[in-house]
Amino acid sequence: MKNVLLINAALMMLLLSDTYAGSTHDKRMAEATPYPWPVGSRWLQDLGFLAFTLPQVEMIMPTKKPRGQTLTRAQKAANRRLARRRVRIEHVNSRVKRCRMVHETNRLRKAGVRDLIMEVCCALHNFRVRLTPGQPMV
Questions:
Q1: Nearest to 79 by CA among 58, 62, 61
Q2: Would residue 103 count as lying in a domain?
Q3: Which residue in 9, 40, 77, 95 has a CA-CA distance of 20 to 30 Å to 101?
Q4: What's the number of domains the chain is made of?
Q5: Over the stretch 61-89, which tens digit does the pLDDT of each residue have?
Q6: In whole angstroms, what is the distance from residue 136 CA to residue 10 CA?
Q7: How far apart are the first and last CA of the chain?
Q8: CB–CB of 29/20 below 8 Å?
Q9: Per-residue pLDDT reduced to its tens digit, 115-124
Q10: Tell me, what DSSP letter sits at residue 43?
């Protein structure tokens, strides 16, 4: 089971998509989810969303190494800065999976139950962040 999570610089979850089967591609899930972003926003995305764009939103992605060539020092430094931010986001994903119902096999087949479980776990994460505010993203 997969979801798309949108996380801000304070590591709070802003948006949770519907739950999809694990075989669904990330880009297809992102296209099916409406995003209410203001003009001039910046979005850090990984390579799973390679061709996904939003109007008037700046998409920030790491630079891919060209075939048979190397990246410049500036490109490598920029990729490292993005990787540091990406690690913080992955830590948020692991904090949500602290709830065992999310990362273990779920046999509850009733419609909407899996979405409800993910919503509750994301709300618990946001509650923990509000109680113990962490450092903003680098």
A1: 62
A2: yes
A3: 9
A4: 1
A5: 888 888 999 999 999 999 999 999 889 88
A6: 5
A7: 30
A8: yes
A9: 888 889 899 9
A10: E
42: β partners: 58
Beta bridge partners of 61: none
Beta bridge partners, 60, equal: 44
Alpha-carbon span 91 to 73, nearest angstrom: 27
The pTM of the full predicted model, rounded to 2 decimals, is 0.73
Is residue 136 one of the residues assigned to a domain?
no
20 residue type, one letter: Y
Q: Which two tokens stand for residue 29?
A: 């899930």
In the beta sheet, which residues pair with residue 59?
A: 43
Q: How far apart are CA 28 and CA 44, in angstroms?
A: 17
Choose among 127, 132, 138, 126: nearest CA to 11.
126
What is the pairing mode between strands 5-7 and 13-16? antiparallel
Decide if 35 is inside a domain.
yes
Query: Is the residue at 59 inside a domain?
Result: yes
Backbone angles phi, psi at 6, to 5 degrees: -110, 125
Contacts of 35 (CB under 8 A, 6+ apart): 6, 15, 54
The single residue listed with the structure tokens 């899930």 is 29
